[in-house]
Amino acid sequence: MYLLDRVWSLFSLDMGIDLGTANTLVCLRGKGIVLSEPSVVAVKKGTTKVLLDGKAVGQMAKDMLGRVPGNIEAIRPMKNGVIANFDITERMLRYFIRKAHGRQWGCRPRLVIAVPSGITDVEKRAVFASADRAGARKVYLIDEPKAAGIGAGMPITNPTGNMIVDIGGGTTEVAVISLGGVVTSQSLRIAGDRMDEAIVQHMKRTYNMDIGPRMAEDIKIDIGSAFAQDEELTAEAKGRDFITGLPRREIITSEEVREALREPVSAIIESIRLTLEKTPPELSADIFDRGMMIAGGGALLRGLDKAISRETGLQVTIADDPLTCVARGTGTVLDDLSRMSGVLEGSESDY
Predict the structure, then answer these.
(1) Ramachandran class of 184: left when φ > 0, alpha when ψ lies in -120 to 50, beta otherwise
(2) DSSP string of 64-97, one letter each residue
(3) What pLDDT digit, counting tens, does each position of 157-201 carry?
(4) Angle CA(162)–CA(168)–CA(174) in degrees, nearest 5?
(5) Fold of the domain spanning 2-39+76-147+326-350
(6) Of 139, 182, 246, 337, which has the maximum CB count within 10 A?
(7) Does the predicted model carry a pTM greater than 0.85?
(8) What is the CATH number of domain 192-262?
């Protein structure tokens, strides 16, 4: 068995994977991030057959969302950070592994996969099974907050309090980490997708207008904010009129989008408060001195750092390149698996 593993290691590059609700990022050991694509797969309706000879995955499939005929489905197999469609997740992983490797054969890598801290053992086993069927020879799991902290350059293995807030597409992970372990945490299934839905609902209530999730995401990126801006912005929203059924457009302001986002933003801040309340006093003192780090795509929402700082009284820092923190963290773990084994949640044999 050992000899076989050595043979596979000659042909396969170890990978770290941020298997996200909205996007999947793959980091190759020694090479950094080589792939970042939407977690979307296009299949023939009622089947698990991926279109275009198995290539309708990622950005190509996302471009089909909301634009496909009745016999095609564009599916997001991850929901709230966990696997919602086992078969489609397996096919998506297999495609990404082979694309990252650059070949179709001999791909039996060891994987370090980041998962939400709040998932159950059953959900962890689903990740192991999907990765195994996708071609991995060994799978390790790491909590997303730990991976994000490592990727952001935080000294999470030191005996000091490190607070990380990772706001992804499906989940927000809030954690206080010390000596490589999570001391206290909150895993909230409110994040970027819920913000998009809040904008969709705002357009329905205010303008009797139906917009798709992609349009809502574009509006969030273009003019979304969590704190008053020095210069407020406007954007064009395009969709379908509920009354006439005809296409229409509206010019909306960043002020009204900020109001639409108030509920999900408030829920994230409340989760941070709850985590702080459960933090031991010595670690609280460290966090008061050092502040907290925010990562993930949600960290890019304008003024979110200021909104969190105002409500908590703490210094809030946005990680460098927050979208890739989790993936970069898995890559750092891969660089020295034996030394970093203490931050891992375990391998298949543990579940």
Answers:
(1) beta
(2) TTT---TTEEEE--EETTEES-HHHHHHHHHHHH
(3) 999 999 999 999 999 999 999 999 999 999 999 999 999 999 999
(4) 30
(5) Nucleotidyltransferase; domain 5 (3.30.420)
(6) 139
(7) yes
(8) 3.90.640.10
